[in-house]
């Protein structure tokens, strides 16, 4: 599979300057982020991609749709490939808001607060413990490895899941190939 990190958001822009959370939930792409998505799409045109899977965050959906339009592919939403809940940007939009914005996409698999960690009622919210995050990403990786088209699948996601699966820390708009049949390479 190919893992593509979403394009730059206003959150990324502000956070990169001082490492302070600017308090922006579910941010959209900036103009630079849209350009990064278009550049990634042009580079990905040389790959044999038959399927696009995206995280349900706005930034990932916008990136996936830009690539999907370029490659003439539909986008599937999968909440398991979302970012690790930890910052304001990791507060998502409700399924109803997402459906209103993108009626052609299927958000039926999302819970009302799909972004919130809910594994332990005493620790729910935006502080998803790393073991739970890694287990969720491992579940996604294993599920994708069992699908016959994994080699031709583009997954539009985030820094955390890409780092967990590959051990690589990639910038916005960049992508890396990953064999989901291999073990996770999480770098601590």
Features:
about 190 residues; alpha/beta; 5-stranded mixed beta sheet; 6 helices
Describe this structure in words.
With 188 residues, the protein is an alpha/beta fold. It has one domain (2-177): Rossmann fold (3-Layer(aba) Sandwich). The chain has helices at residues 10-18, 31-44, 58-71, 95-101, 130-145, 159-166, and strands at residues 2-5, 51-54, 75-77, 153-157, 175-177. Strand 2 (51-54), helix 3 (58-71) and strand 3 form a beta-alpha-beta unit. The model has no long low-confidence stretch (mean pLDDT 92).
Cα end-to-end separation: 23 Å
Name the shape in a single word: globular
Strand content: 5-15%
Query: How many domains, in number, for the residues?
Result: 1
Order of helices and strands: EHHEHEHHEHE
Helix content: 25-40%
Number of helical regions: 6
Q: Unreliable stretches, pLDDT < 50, 5 or more residues?
A: none
How does the helix and strand content classify structurally? alpha/beta
Q: Which CATH architecture is right?
A: 3-Layer(aba) Sandwich
Radius of gyration: 15 Å
Number of strands: 5
- Give the biggest sheet: 5 strands, mixed
- Major β-sheet strand ordering: 3-2-4-1-5
CATH homologous superfamily heading? Phosphoglycerate mutase-like
Q: Classify the fold: give the CATH topology.
A: Rossmann fold
Would you summarize the structure shown here?
The chain is α/β, with parallel strands linked by helices and 188 residues long. It has six helices and five strands; from the N terminus they run E-H-H-E-H-E-H-H-E-H-E.
Topology record:
Layout lengths: L1 E4 L4 H9 L12 H14 L6 E4 L3 H14 L3 E3 L17 H7 L28 H16 L7 E5 L1 H8 L8 E3 L11
Parallel strand pairs: 1-4, 2-3, 2-4
Antiparallel strand pairs: 1-5
Helix pairs in contact: 2-3
């Amino acid at each position: 599979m190919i893992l593509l990190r979403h394009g730059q958001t206003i959150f990324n822009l502000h956070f990169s300057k001082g490492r302070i959370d600017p308090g922006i939930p579910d941010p959209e792409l900036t103009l630079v982020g849209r350009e990064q998505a278009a550049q990634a799409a042009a580079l990905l045109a040389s790959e044999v991609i038959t399927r696009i899977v995206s995280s349900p965050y706005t930034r990932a959906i916008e990136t996936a749709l830009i690539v999907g339009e370029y490659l003439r592919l539909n986008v599937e939403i999968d909440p398991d490939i979302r970012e690790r809940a930890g910052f304001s940007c990791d507060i998502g939009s409700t399924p109803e808001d997402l459906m209103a914005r993108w009626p052609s996409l299927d958000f039926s698999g999302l819970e009302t607060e799909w972004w919130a960690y809910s594994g332990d009622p005493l620790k729910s919210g935006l502080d998803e413990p790393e073991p739970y995050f890694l287990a969720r990403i491992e579940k996604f990786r294993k599920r994708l490895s069992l699908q016959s088209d994994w080699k031709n699948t583009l997954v539009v996601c985030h820094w955390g899941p890409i780092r967990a699966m590959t051990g690589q820390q990639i910038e916005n708009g960049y992508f890396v190939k990953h064999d989901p049949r291999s073990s996770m390479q999480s770098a601590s």
